[in-house]
Amino acid sequence: MVKLRLKRCGRKQRAVYRIVAIDVRSRREGRDLRKVGFYDPINNQTYLNVPDILYFLEKGAQPTGTVHDILKKAGVFTELSLNQAKFN
């Protein structure tokens, strides 16, 4: 099973996170399938590769709680529902 979750980068006391698609059995810093975004909580900046995120969500990937909140704030789930309505 694939999850969309945060991978910690940066230095001490100055964490930034990559949003990655990763196998559930991998550890937090393990090898990811694909990098799909970036999140900086200190500067409150977010970059999302929406087509890749939609691809993984359509294939059944589950976002973690924090990633779910980030994607919800960015409006990714409304795009997902529009894409599903378009193809049905």
From TrEMBL:
Signal peptide: none annotated. One of its GO terms (molecular function) is structural constituent of ribosome. The keyword Metal-binding does not apply. It is found in: Plastid, Chloroplast. Its main location: plastid. One of its GO terms (cellular component) is mitochondrion. Pfam families: Ribosomal_S16. SUPFAM superfamilies: Ribosomal protein S16 (SSF54565). GO terms for biological process: mitochondrial translation. Keywords: Chloroplast, Plastid, Ribonucleoprotein, Ribosomal protein. Belongs to the bacterial ribosomal protein bS16 family. HAMAP family: Ribosomal_bS16 (MF_00385). This is Small ribosomal subunit protein bS16c. The gene is rps16.
